[in-house]
């Protein structure tokens, strides 16, 4: 791990590399000036004349810079012109050497790295809004940065691949994304990236190297224990190591999808609701058919296949047949040796009578071949297709599978759910405990109102910082219900296009889908779902006293301090009432 170049190393590096050329130029100039003062000349009257040091320096300065004003203050003698000729050739040699050194210095990778580091440090230091540190700008990192940009959050990226780091400038992000091409395992670099910055609100480790993610998790835990760190882990050993250091959020995309699949098999509505709420902003979720019970074929018994088999074993209505190139290592299920890309292995696994198939190998071409062949043999087959590389997106979109497993999207969904809306996690946990009719009714009601486009999910804490107007009224003893504040500040007769899904209170009196007549208390935190314009209007109601008064009472207050002062009714004195 190479140490980072400090920002002050730029000046030191430049001065060190240019030391010899500068000494040479200064020496040539000094010798030229000295010789010119010693060379004899004549004035207009033919008398002996010597140039002063000032005149000699002035002449050599404009001569060396090729300006060439002329000979001063009198025409030069042959001795002076001979010396000037010698000085010209010396200066050409000196400038050629210096310019060559400058070009070599500009192409030096150490200087370029020092300059980039300095710019990166300044960009991070100037941030004055909440931001996340994203370590790794691969497929997942690109999705995360794009989603954060749409949600209005800033991101600082650390990526060791120069090509990937250079791609950031090609994406049209609304705000600049400070980027550093370096190894994120270096804890000093994480500090430079803003780990201890007062506006840093999270660290996301998304590299494809578990050891790097583990190093980032440890650095975040020790250097900034209050900042949440969300780390990707491909193996259970790495996840256990991260957990031992107190990493709050560890995501294994294979285990997360296995959890989704298990949920989809016994509670499809809850699965659809989870997919809809945690989708990437700006996308539309299409409701697919529910995964059926019966015999399932799993093609590929690697890390992904093993996790899925373990999850599906918990479902009593599901039987499993495994197709893999290796010989059987799971005696509890039927095993067919092969790759599944051809009909014989699929026929032997009973594809014609199967309910579903999972093409889960590590090769995208093989997975597509398995899915196409299986659908030809059984058109009603429920197909789950694993996509390993996001670059093959167009191929997978061309094939009409029921579910595409994209690890980068799974991680992105989970990251956004955890970091941008922490209250969404306990709500989803509560949903998983509910029965299928309850989840189906909630899904139909929400999608019927907001459609299948991924909604805006956000949380609001009733505090002085986030909701000053509402908090002030509550602290003065006002009684306000959810129904009263979920009104449009432009027309209080219209309801906002949002709903409260979860109400979190500090006394553990949490409410799932609270009743509209529920009274709000100071300190409550609300989880809301709706459209983006509804959030803007709701934020205005919470923070602006005039908008809140209009929503609650219908009274439109004057818009300024002076008008408020004049609009207040004068208070009559008791003596005036007696008269």
UniProtKB/TrEMBL annotation:
Limits of the RCK C-terminal domain: 463-544
Keyword annotations from UniProtKB, A to Z: Ion channel, Ion transport, Membrane, Transmembrane, Transmembrane helix, Transport
Highest taxon of the lineage: Bacteria
Membrane-spanning ranges: 21-42, 48-70, 82-107
GO annotation terms (biological process): monoatomic ion transmembrane transport
Keyword Nucleotidyltransferase in annotation: no
Recorded topology in the membrane: Multi-pass membrane protein
Organism listed in the record: Aromatoleum buckelii
Cited SUPFAM superfamilies: NAD(P)-binding Rossmann-fold domains, TrkA C-terminal domain-like, Voltage-gated potassium channels
Principal place of residence: membrane
Subcellular location, record wording: Cell membrane
The name this protein goes by in its record: Potassium channel protein
A Pfam family hit: Ion_trans_2
Domain RCK N-terminal, chain residue ranges per copy: 129-251, 293-407
């Amino acid at each position: 791990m190479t140490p980072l170049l400090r920002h002050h190393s730029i000046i030191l590096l430049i001065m060190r590399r240019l030391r010899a050329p500068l000494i040479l130029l200064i020496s040539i100039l000094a010798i030229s000036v000295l010789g010119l003062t010693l060379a004899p000349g004549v004035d207009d009257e033919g008398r002996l004349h010597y140039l002063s040091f000032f005149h000699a320096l002035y002449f050599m300065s404009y001569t060396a810079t090729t300006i060439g004003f002329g000979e001063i203050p009198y025409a030069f003698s042959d001795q002076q012109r001979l010396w000037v000729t010698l000085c010209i050739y010396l200066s050409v040699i000196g400038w050629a050497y210096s310019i060559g050194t400058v070009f070599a210095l500009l192409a030096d990778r150490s200087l370029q790295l020092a300059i980039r580091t300095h710019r990166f440090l300044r960009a991070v230091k100037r941030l004055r809004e909440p931001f996340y540190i994203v370590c790794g700008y691969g497929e997942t990192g690109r999705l995360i940065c794009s989603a954060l940009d749409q949600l209005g959050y800033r991101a600082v990226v650390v990526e060791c691949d120069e090509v990937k780091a250079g791609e950031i400038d090609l994406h049209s992000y609304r705000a600049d994304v400070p980027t550093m091409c370096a190894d994120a395992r270096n804890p000093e670099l994480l500090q430079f990236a803003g780990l201890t910055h007062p506006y840093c609100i999270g660290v996301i480790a998304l590299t494809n190297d578990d050891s790097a993610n583990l190093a980032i998790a440890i650095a975040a835990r020790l250097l900034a224990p209050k900042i949440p760190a969300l780390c990707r882990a491909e193996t259970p050993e790495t996840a256990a190591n991260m957990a031992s250091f107190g990493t709050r959020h560890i995501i294994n995309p294979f285990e997360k999808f296995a959890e989704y699949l298990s949920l989809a098999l016994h509670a499809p509505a809850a699965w659809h609701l989870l997919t809809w709420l945690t989708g990437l902003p700006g996308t539309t979720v299409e409701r697919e058919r529910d995964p059926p019970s019966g015999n399932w074929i799993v093609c590929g018994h690697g890390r992904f296949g093993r996790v899925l088999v373990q999850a599906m074993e918990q479902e009593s209505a599901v039987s499993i047949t495994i197709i893999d190139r290796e010989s059987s290592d799971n005696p509890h299920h039927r095993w067919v040796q092969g790759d599944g890309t051809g009909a014989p292995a699929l026929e032997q696994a009973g594809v014609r009578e199967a309910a579903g198939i999972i093409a889960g190998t590590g090769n995208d071409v093989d997975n597509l071949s398995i899915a196409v062949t299986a659908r030809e043999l059984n058109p009603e087959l429920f197909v789950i297709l694993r996509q390993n590389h996001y670059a093959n997106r167009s191929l997978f979109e061309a094939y009409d599978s029921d579910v595409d497993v994209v690890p980068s999207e799974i991680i992105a969904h989970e990251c956004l759910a955890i970091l941008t809306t922490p209250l969404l996690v306990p709500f989803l946990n509560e949903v998983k405990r509910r029965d299928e009719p309850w989840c189906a009714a909630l899904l139909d009601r929400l999608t019927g109102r907001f459609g299948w486009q991924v909604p805006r999910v956000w949380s609001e804490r009733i505090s002085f910082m986030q909701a000053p107007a509402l908090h002030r009224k509550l602290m003065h003893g006002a009684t306000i219900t959810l129904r009263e504040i979920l009104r449009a500040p432009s027309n209080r007769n219209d309801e906002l296009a949002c709903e409260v899904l979860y109400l979190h209170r500090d006394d553990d009196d949490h409410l799932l889908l609270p009743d509209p007549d529920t009274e709000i208390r100071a300190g409550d935190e609300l989880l809301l779902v709706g459209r983006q314009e509804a959030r803007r209007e709701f934020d205005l109601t919470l923070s602006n006293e005039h908008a809140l008064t209009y929503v609650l009472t219908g009274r439109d207050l004057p818009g300024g301090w002076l008008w408020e002062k004049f609009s207040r009714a004068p208070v009559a004195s008791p003596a005036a009432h007696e008269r």
